C-alpha cells in the first residue's frame, strides 16, 4: 500500500485509494477489520477534506513518512512509538481541517 502511495503521489484520487488500502490493511492485520467497515461507511466528510488537501495543504511525502513510522513501530513491537506515530498522523487531520476552513469556508465547517 505504501508503494502504491508513492506511485500515486501526483494523483490525489489514486493516492486516496492507496491511502484507504493502507488503513484497511492495517485494520485487518490488527484484527480490527470490523472497525474499518464502520470507518468506510462514515468517512464521506473526511474524504472531502483529503481530496481538497492533496497535495497543496498536505504534502504526500509527509503522509507516506507518517505511515512508514507507524508501520515500523508496530513491526518493531514498540507500542509507545506506535502510539506516538499514530497520534502524529491523526493530528494532521486537525491541522488540515483548520487550514481548509480558512481556504474554503463555504465547504468546511470546523465548529469553532
Question: In words, what does this structure look like?
Answer:
Helix content is 76%, strand content 0%. The protein is an all-alpha fold and 112 residues long. The protein has one domain (2-103). The N and C termini lie far apart (35 Å).
* pLDDT < 50 runs, ≥5 residues: none
> Beta fraction of the residues?
under 5%
Whole-number mean pLDDT:
84
Name the structural class: mainly alpha
Kindly provide the radius of gyration, computed on alpha-carbon positions and rounded to a whole number of angstroms: 14 Å
Note the overall shape.
globular
Tell how many strands the DSSP assignment holds: 0
Order of helices and strands: HHHHHH
Helical fraction: over 70%
Q: Termini separation (Å)? A: 35 Å
Total number of helical segments? 6
Main sheet record: none
Q: Into how many domains do the coordinates divide?
A: 1
Any descriptors?
about 110 residues, mainly alpha, about 75% helix, about 0% strand, globular
Structure described in brief:
By secondary structure, this protein is mainly alpha-helical. The protein contains 6 helices and no strands. Helix 4 (44-53) crosses helix 6 and helix 5 runs antiparallel to helix 6 (79-103).
